[in-house]
Amino acid sequence: GEDVEQSLFLSVREGDSSVINCTYTDSSSTYLYWYKQEPGAGLQLLTYIFSNMDMKQDQRLTVLLNKKDKHLSLRIADTQTGDSAIYFCAETSTSGTYKYIFGTGTRLKVLA
Amino acid sequence: DVKVTQSSRYLVKRTGEKVFLECVQDMDHENMFWYRQDPGLGLRLIYFSYDVKMKEKGDIPEGYSVSREKKERFSLILESASTNQTSMYLCASSFGTGTSSYEQYFGPGTRLTVT
After folding, report:
1. Cα(B70)–Cα(B85) distance, rounded to whole angstroms?
2. C-alpha distances in angstroms, B88 versus A97, A98, B25?
3. A43, A67, B5, B60: which could form a disulfide with A35 (CB 3.0–4.6 Å)?
4. What is the pLDDT of residues A33-68, one digit of tens each?
5. Dmax (CA) of chain B
6. Would you call B9 helix, strand, or coil by DSSP?
7. Residue of A99, A101, A106, A107 best to disrupt the B interface, most CBs of B under 10 A
8. B45, A99: Cβ pair inside 8 Å?
9. Where are the beta strands (DSSP E) in A1-112?
10. What dihedral angle (degrees, nearest 10) is formed by the CA atoms of A107, B1, B7, B11?
């Protein structure tokens, strides 16, 4: 079945760039998403990319999609302590079920 | 702003009790979802509903049931709570098909402990 994988932890220093990676198996993915979960809260959509795009930039966030390798990344420039959270990668497929497949989440810790 | 609310932030129940988790959304969304979140496992879909009185099993429906009598409300029911159902439960909603994306809006979660 479909699978989405992420590394569990990432630690960076404040001001550095963070890169969170995700791989997925469903070649029919339509949209790929990045969600952020702050402590004690639900998930909030950060950004998404349509599968026919290679890159999307939104202020400090850059999403790169390599469809051939089924690899998605989220780069956060000038990482701040407020960026400390769990980041989830998710995808939906063209099957039209609007179901998400979520990754395990990457816990980003930003060191001051 | 879209709002998804869940009836409790924290809940402690005893083994064997029947547990109701309520979720309400105010954006007239067709789709609603129940997930559980466990460390290292991410979010796993329990049930979802794409219309009133309609429901479909997700990846881990065993031990759970759901009810959607009104469009804005989606309830998760643990018929007989067990300790392995101790988890964070997240509700989400989204518009139906034909939209530009399938963004899901999440509630704050209910942390359920079964003792």
Report:
1. 26
2. 24, 22, 19
3. A43
4. 999 999 888 899 999 998 888 899 999 999 999 988
5. 44
6. coil
7. A99
8. yes
9. 4-6, 9-13, 18-24, 29-37, 43-50, 55-58, 61-66, 71-76, 85-93, 101-102, 106-111
10. 20
E-strand stretches of chain B: 4-6, 10-13, 19-25, 31-38, 42-49, 56-57, 64-70, 73-78, 87-94, 105-106, 110-114
Q: What would the two tokens of residue A100 be? A: 């998400």
Task: Supply the DSSP string of A17-40, one letter for each residue.
Answer: -EEEEEEE--TTEEEEEEEEE-TT
DSSP reduced 3-state for A82: helix
- Which residues in A lie closer than 8 A to residue B43 (C-beta atoms)? 43, 88, 100, 102, 105
pLDDT in tens, B26-81: 999 989 999 999 988 889 999 999 889 899 999 999 999 999 999 999 999 999 99
What is d(CA B43, CA A54) in angstroms, rounded to the nearest whole number? 26
